[in-house]
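To the structural biology subgroup,

Please find below the input and predicted structure for Transcriptional regulator, TetR family, which we are adding to the shared reference set this quarter. The sequence is reproduced verbatim from the submission form. If anyone notices a discrepancy with their own records, reply to this email rather than editing the shared folder directly, so we keep one authoritative version.
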Amino acid sequence: MTAPKRLTDLKREAIIQAAITEFHASGFDITSMDKIAATAGVSKRTVYNHFPSKEELFTEIMHKLWASIRARTDILYHPGLTLREQLRELLMAKLQLLADDNFLNLARVAIAATLHSPERAQYMVARMGEREESLMVWIRSARADGRLKPLDPDFAAQQLHGMLKAFAFWPQITMNQPPLKEDEQQRVVESTLDMFLACYQA
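Predicted structure (tokenized):
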């Protein structure tokens, strides 16, 4: 049985969700801690007790984004399974994440907050690279097993991510299109697998 959350934990979560809402609506620079407190239904003192600065609050939002990516997209290489089976599982997990409204809202906040801050943009790119490392590890393992042709794992991983995001991330982020339906996800995954394996499978 899961223990009930403490009041302080509930307030912290309310502050984070309020910050996501306000950052998304008004942008990082315009949003004030006062506004976040009002939206969260807590005092400004409570906000500062949890997060000493707006930058630290933004960093917490970023951590939630990276955690959601890692939790859903980690996959290990299995010599006994076909490459297509393994990659299909990985890519479908990625698409399910990209279809999640909370993830998309977090991503919109993160992208908007980095537009006018090179420092935040560098941080975001660096952390994204860390979280997408699992695919490169899988590609290296498949290559070491002789099942992929010689390739640059980083380049190949970016190709895979790029093909998915062209349909299931950037249209939703930039044009507010709805997430892909299940049949659309399957079409994107199978087409991506066809191209990747035709190019790289040994």
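Summary notes: The chain has a mean pLDDT of 85. The chain has two domains: 1-52, 60-200.

Regards,
Lab coordination
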